[in-house]
Amino acid sequence: MAASVEIKQEPVEGVDLETRIINLCQQNPSGINEETIKDDMPQFDVKQRVTAINRLLSTGRLEIFKSGSKLIYRIKDGQSTNNQLKGGDNQEKLVYQIIKEAGNKGIWIRDIRYKSNLLMTQLNKILKNLESKKLIKAVKSVAASKKKVYMLYNLEPDRSVTGGAWYSDQDFESEFVEVLNQQCFKYLQQKAITAAEGKSDPVAQKNGSYASSSEIWTFISKLGISKVQLAVEDIETILDTLVYDGKVEESFLEAQSGDKKRLYRSIKPLIETAGLMRMPCGSCPVVDQCREGGVISPITCVYMKDWLS
Q1: How does DSSP assign 120-152, residue by residue?
Q2: Which of 42, 76, 147, 284 could form a disulfide with 63 if both were Cys (CB 3.0 to 4.6 A apart)?
Q3: What is the pLDDT of residues 65-98, one digit of tens each?
Q4: What are phi and psi of 266, to 5 degrees?
Q5: Dihedral through CA 217, CA 221, CA 222, CA 225, nearest 10?
Q6: Around Cβ 259, how many Cβ atoms within 10 Å?
């Protein structure tokens, strides 16, 4: 009598859920999270969803990454892309590969043309086709206002492309930077006042007036003055400008792990700034051409009017 062989079968519900998650990822190339899956498939419980996601991850059909505090799932590069490129010719695949290699810094159309050796009419048509399939996207670069760089659709552009938190539609947000500058300095001043009032020992006062960039970042985040999510590195950039202005002192504290923690405290300048340097004339690049009755004159100088007012 032949031995019976038991064949393991996947539950129909589990296989169906995996397929639906893959389809949902194809509709959202930038990725989905647990809430997206739950809203789209409320009939499945948490255990079923977790089991399906883990299986898709273990079989290499999905990839996982973190965005903020959320876990994002998306089709592993090559699954949906290969399907969408299947109908394309070799030239389209070549252009896609060139853009992929550029990463999140992107690549200009001039460089794509040079590497692909395609005519501009051919290249424009291919780029338009890839954009329509949501495989690539064009992003404006702050380095060159009239030029766009191309990168894969699901990539977050590098700060060198977008300018980070300090730019909005390629325009430098000078007022926003100034507000952050003032608030960071105000926080450090208050920290110094609190330390001076609470401690009699000068050394303790000095140590107590220091604040880490993380502490200042937390303070700025709680103020709610920023429309964009700022990173600790962004706050350190602002603090660097205060150091250069002579308003803040920077120090380093070495942790047990060997990492250096950046600390800051407000300081009073050793000497008062010279009167000329407080005037616009002290830093004006065309002061040698400024004369009464001339094209550049103290009477018509808008910076002088602002300073006097």
Answers
A1: HHHHHHHHHHHHHTTSEEEEEETTEEEEEEEEE
A2: 76
A3: 777 778 888 877 655 566 666 656 788 888 988 9
A4: -75, 145
A5: 130
A6: 9
